[in-house]
Specification:
It is a single chain. This protein is of the alpha/beta class. The protein has one domain. Helix content is 19%, strand content 31%. The strands form 2 sheets. It has a 4-stranded parallel beta sheet with strand order 1-2-4-6, with no helix packed on it. The protein starts with a helix and ends with a strand.
Length: 107
């Protein structure tokens, strides 16, 4: 029984470490429309190459975004935002590594 408890504890620790390596970044947009402003993101951090960018009901403002630099993210999920979402890049490069999921777009 002790051996099973140790294995279970190890699995929980490994799962926790894996979850912290990949972050979901939800756009809040409380400051402006700039992706480079960390105050616009949950966790006050910019999304990285393995992160999921999420637009949802918490994405309350500035949904017409401006990249202001090159970005690569793991995935984008748009699910029930309060208004249409647009990501404007101008000349910077924007790429999504794995998937682009539009769960429900309003507008």
């Amino acid at each position: 029984m002790k051996k099973l408890s140790k294995h279970f504890a190890l699995i929980v620790v490994m799962a926790t470490l894996r979850l912290s390596a990949v972050a979901d970044q939800t756009w809040l947009g409380g400051t402006d429309n700039q992706w480079t402003n960390t105050a616009n993101w949950s966790g006050n951090a910019l999304p990285g190459s393995g992160d999921w960018v999420i637009y949802n009901n918490l994405s309350a403002a500035n949904l017409s975004n401006w990249l202001g630099g090159d970005f690569t993210v793991g995935s984008i999920v748009v699910s029930n935002p309060p208004a249409p979402v647009s990501i404007n890049s101008g000349s910077p490069l924007f790429s999504v590594e794995s998937e682009y999921e539009l769960a429900r777009l309003r507008g």
